[in-house]
Amino acid sequence: MSGDSESNDLERRLRAALKPVNPREGFSRGVMARIAAEPARAARLPRAPAVASWLAFGLAASVVLGVIVAHEWQAGRTAQGLEARRQLIEALKVTDEKLDLAYRVVNTQERATPPQHSGA
Known about the structure:
Number of helices: 3
Distance between the termini: 104 Å
Structural class: mainly alpha
Helix content: over 70%
Largest sheet: none
Shape: elongated
Radius of gyration: 44 Å
Order of helices and strands: HHH
Strand content: under 5%
């Protein structure tokens, strides 16, 4: 049961800590005075378009670079595939030649040796 009481105690403390509180007297005047004392933000606005254009340029460059890298990767894979195809065709040709040779050797030997009869 101590788990329930700890849970209830925690919930009670959280509710107390998160209870809405009215601001002190003069809070609004202090905020307004700080806002009036700050320099105008309009002076910083000319930099914002420059930063935005650099960000747009960086994004466009990243996209172009990504497309180029993807194209080169695909071209490399295509070249690998063509090389594998060439090697397979070469292996099939060699296998065909060896099988033809083996076939000729076997057939030549069968004709050259007379059949053996048991004489029975």
